[in-house]
Amino acid sequence: MTLTKENLVNSIRIQLDFQKRKSANLIDSLLEIIKKTLENGEDILISGFGKFCVKETDEHRGRNPRIGNDLTQGARRVIVFRCSPVLSKKLNDE
After folding, report:
1. Please, where are the H alpha helices in the chain?
2. What is 41-94's CATH number?
């Protein structure tokens, strides 16, 4: 099952006994902070969870799989997630 924004809002509402609107505002504010931080090229480190890093990719050659044409992918920024050792151990039952 995929964890959706709605699931997060309901979990916050139940665990913290918040109203649904307050829970939704909390999640929206958190996501907005995360988006703005990543847009500025800064990394986000959440202890015990992992790190979101903004990486620059170089221009590279690619191929359109539908038509088969060669094309050039421009340089761009991507977000990479690195899992913390704590979470990694929990995922692998170590």
Report:
1. 5-16, 20-39, 85-91
2. 4.10.520.10
